[in-house]
Amino acid sequence: MTVQSNSFSTYSLHIQISRKVKIKIGKIGTFEFPKGIYVYCGSARRNFDARINRHLNRNKKSHWHIDYLLASKYSKIIKIEKFQLSEHTECTLVGKYVSNILAEIFAVGFGASDCKNRCKSHLLKLL
Fold first, then answer.
1. Contact 68, 24 (CB under 8 A)
2. Which of 1, 61, 101, 122 could disulfide-link to 111, CB 3.0 to 4.6 Å?
3. CA angle (80 as vertex; 38, 112 as ends), nearest 5
4. What are phi and psi of 103, to 5 degrees?
């Protein structure tokens, strides 16, 4: 599957985890992921299409936190949402999910190690 877009810079990946699984996520540690649906909020200031297509590819070296999660045979991207930066940033998306009581923070530090807004995590578990 190849995704193409033009003016997008922020995205959310909806990820289904089909069974409870423990995964080592880079240097932030090992987390136990219960079965369920998770949302990862990310951005790509350049090469947006390449970033999304990289997430869809299972045969890659793990670089970002999300790569470790997506490498599990129990995880699968089930939905991709794309946003223009003028509408949303990844931090804004996290805030909207949490404030609307749609999701809870999961895996503190996940995807947020370079976050200028000091988000606790860019990975959420849907309620």
1. yes
2. 122
3. 55
4. -155, 165
Q: Are 12 and 80 in contact (CB under 8 A)?
A: yes
Helix (H, G, I), strand (E, B) or coil at 15: strand
Q: In this structure, how many other beta carbons lie within 10 angstroms of the beta carbon of residue 87?
A: 11
Please state the domain extents for the chain: 10-126
Higher pLDDT, 96 or 75: 75
Most confident stretch, 14-18, 41-45, 96-100: 14-18
pLDDT tens figures, 29-65:
999 999 999 999 999 878 899 999 999 999 899 999 9
